[in-house]
Amino acid sequence: MSIRAPRIEFAVGAFLLLALASLLVLAIASTNGNFSFGGSTYEVSARFSNLGPLRQNAPVKVGGVTIGKVAKIGLDPVKLDSVVTLAIDSRYSDLPADTSAAILTSGLLGESFVGLKPGGDPDPLKDGDEIFLTQSSVDIIELVGKYMFSGAADNAGSSGNTSPDTADEAVPDYLQ
Compositionally biased, Acidic residues: which spans (predicted)? Predict the structure, then answer.
């Protein structure tokens, strides 16, 4: 009986150490995203006027496929634009130089990510280049507020006359 006890204790201890090591690897991989086994990247930057809920380590996608991540977010002190540095996997080094970038959201209230749309330029993006064609994040709360309050202001000022006097009044404000 005394010979078996040390073997069982050793097996339980080894299992416990293996479980703790697995938990540590999982924690490192899920928190900072820098725990990877190889794979080089190149960095390009893009300027946005509004980042919305975009955060560091957010995915960079082309057609729904993740090809990189947001490496750094900063502010240009001269132009006061947000500068986002994208770390793109070097397997995708053939992205055209006229690629456009937009801050998009997965679903209605999902995570934000940077979506890239490749252009047609034969020259590829290189390390340190800047993406000039950008589209900032759309603030859904602001859009809903504008829609609600602009509609309420138009309805409150009407005098009951529903027929427009001129052709300009027949066209809604957002189409003019």
Answer: 166-176
Parallel/antiparallel/unpaired status of strands 59-62 and 112-117: parallel
**How much is the pLDDT for 145?**
85
Q: Could you say which DSSP state residue 2 is in?
A: T
Per-residue pLDDT reduced to its tens digit, 90-145? 898 889 999 999 998 887 777 889 999 998 888 988 888 999 988 888 777 777 88
Q: How many CB atoms lie within 10 A of CB 124?
A: 15
Per-residue b or e along 91-117, where b marks 16 or more CB atoms closer than 10 Å to that residue's CB: ebeebbbbbbbbbbbeeeeeebbbbbe
Q: How far apart are the C-alpha atoms of 61 and 81, rounded to whole Å?
A: 22
Q: How many residues does the chain have?
A: 176
